[in-house]
Structures are given as structure tokens and as C-alpha cells.
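Thread: quick sanity check before group meeting

JM: Hey all, I'm pulling together slides for Thursday and realized we never actually wrote out the predicted structure for the chain we discussed last week. Dropping the sequence here so it's in one place. If anyone has concerns about the input, flag it before I start.
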Amino acid sequence: MSWVCRLYRSSLGAKYVMASTGVLLLGFLIAHLLGNLQMFAGADAVNSYAESLRALGPLLWVARIGLLVIAGVHIVTALRLAKANEAARPVAYVKQASRQVKPQTKTMVLSGLVILGYVVYHLAHFTWGFVLHDYSTLVDTEGRHDVYSMVVYGFQCWWVSASYLVALALLALHLCHGITSAFQTFGLNHAKYATAIKLTGPAIATLLFLGYASIPVACWLGIVQILEGT
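JM (edit): ok, ran it. Output follows.
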């Protein structure tokens, strides 16, 4: 196992870890979005989906803990790489060539930490019930946790929707650079596909932003709403 530790401590190994954990987190974002989009299918679809997840019992907690470990490794590795990069240039450049550095490249660590903070808030709102607590205890006519109503009521609050959209914008910015960097780390940056690779990150980030943002916007505008008798 010593070679694994040596590889991780190296800059190249850390970049592989960053890229690998990033891909896993991206997979979660896509799967989570597909589940969330059931809001447009109505209360029964969402509440049934939520109940099926709760029925997994210990397996759900294994998945959650695994996701936390992956996210933790991703964050710790990112901070370590940022610190190593800073230590490699102890003397500031005489002339800053900031125009050649994309904004998302300069703010990857900061945006990642802000996103982490929002994830904690998101869990406090929709999973732990600490935010808008009255809505977290709702039950539908079938006796299931009424996730649909909780989401609608939550996003009808303008500041909840606004904070969600700001976090999504930061996430999209983070993904634009992160996805493209993953291609480079895995050596998939052949000149023949350079243009496609450069467009893949922004394209996926935009689709995820629009998909996630459609839910709070629809709730706030009343497109997705609570019907009588549900």
C-alpha cells in the first residue's frame, strides 16, 4: 500500500484522485437531478420516490456515508493541491497575467467551499428539517412524508429560491472547469477532440443548472403547485 500513499502524495496522483472523485460526484448530481425532476410528475410520483429511498434503510445510509467520504476526499485533495501550488511560487509574479486565467480556474477552491456550505444548508432544509421546520413534518393522504409539498412551500419563499439559484450558478462555474480538467487529467485531450472537450464541460454544467433551477423557478412562479386534496 506504500506505493498508493506515494502516488496520492504526488501532484499527479492527487490530480487523479481529484478527477476520479469529481466524476463520481458528477454522477450523483445527474442521478439526483433525475429524481428531483419528478416534481413535474406530481405529488404521488415524488412522494413514492422518496418513500422508496427511505425503504432502503441501512443501504441508504451506506450510500450517504460513501458520498460524504468521496466529497471529503475531493475537498481535502483540492485544498492540498492549492496549497502545494501556492508553495511552489513563494514569490509573487512581477506582472500578473490574469487575463489568461479563466475566472472559474481562479475560484475553484472558493466556489467549492461555498458549494459545500450550501450543501449543508440544503440538507438542513430538506433532509434534517431544521429550516422551515413546519413544512418538514407534512404527511400526504397515504401517510407518506409529503416531500412534494415541502419542496413547493420551501421554494415559494423567495430567499430560499434565490440562495438555491446562486449556489447552482457557482456549481455550474465549478463544473465548467472541473469537467474539462478531468479530461486533461485522464489524458483525453487529443488535439482532434480539443474543441469538443472544451465544450463538454460548459454544456453539462449548463444542462445541470437549467435542470436544477427549473424546480425552484417553477415552484416560485406557481407552475408547480399544491392542488387541493393532495
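AS: nice. Confidence is low (pLDDT under 50) at residues 93-101. The chain is about 75% helix and 0% strand.
JM: adding both to the slides.
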